[in-house]
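Hello again, I could really use a second opinion on something today. I've been staring at a protein lately and its backbone has me curious. You're getting the sequence in one-letter code plus the fold written as tokens. I'd be grateful if you could look everything over and explain what you see. No rush at all, and the record is pasted right below:
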Amino acid sequence: MNHRSKAFTEALQCLSSDPAKAKRYLQDKRPTLPEKRIIKAGLQLRDNDFEIIIESLTSFTAADAYIESQRLLILGITYNNKSEFKKATELLEESYRVGKGTRGHQREFVTLYNLFNAYSNRHDEKRMQIYFEKLNTLGSKSVYEAIALGLCQLEYHLIKNDLVKAKALSEDLNPSMPMMIEHQKIFFILKKFSIFLQLNELPAAYSCIAELKSHRKYQTSSNYKFIKSLTQYLEKDAPFYIYESDFAEAQELFHQMNVIKAISEGDHKTASLHWHELQETNPEVYRADFVFKGIRGLFMIALNKALSETTFNTNVVVASGGTKEEKFLEVLKQNKGPLSKVIIYEILYGKKPTLKSDFLKLAALASNVRKKFGVSIQTRKGCYYLAS
């Protein structure tokens, strides 16, 4: 490894532990221009600048095997963070292959660690075990690596649904929290949240959410908004307020939330559209008919709640004759559960509601139906339903 690659490696080693120091290497004369682009991309990962990273790192390839392996590594991490897990594992596997024999211990560890995490996101236990064993064989040479190994072991037992072992491992890791770097702390808190949630230890799970609030940058993240929204749905049956701009770099979470929202509103069409998007990126986990084969975490629990409380009727047929009040009542009777106001309006008026006055018109119609037919029409989370 020449003097340039040494400076390059030093910068890469600082990306997680000391980003300010890594940034200073961008002004250093030793790293080459391609090396500086890779360092800069590694720093941009912290701000989720995924499209900028992809554009920068796909515009060139490096002749040097070591430099090329690091370009592929950062790209693989980027796609993993974008929830494009298949693409991520392909790039990380290529990085591992290309850089074989050129990496020192630390870069080898980082490559294996990210391969483990990417296959974890694909719920591929076989490959997770392969890379976990490689990590164990390689061993740790720093506190950061020792903690990372512990977190991998925790994740592996979570994926295997061995909650007793996972909880014991989390308790063993608790004393190490002060030594964890920021992203390790957040990862660890999220895993504890998942464990407590699955064991139905809800007060402990909710305390993890409070713990996340101390990480100010994380509070603005898509993941935090996702957790907060689904937790409030489970705890208080709260409505969803989903803004695509909040999930620009977390499309999986965006589609997951929209699936839950649409199912809870009886909107099979919209739920299916978002489910299809999830299937496109991870078909092993998102099966047909809203069957989820991932870990029993927050999304699965919320999905089960929504499905158990909703009866889909995808063939609501309303007779051409009759008054709007009669048709409104017939729609609710056929659905037998909460139905989105948007869908009801579309059935009755043949178009989507776009103005506030459209929903006021529907509310007035619901009031007339109550008075005329003596029925109890309830409203919840943007839906109407007949109370039994």
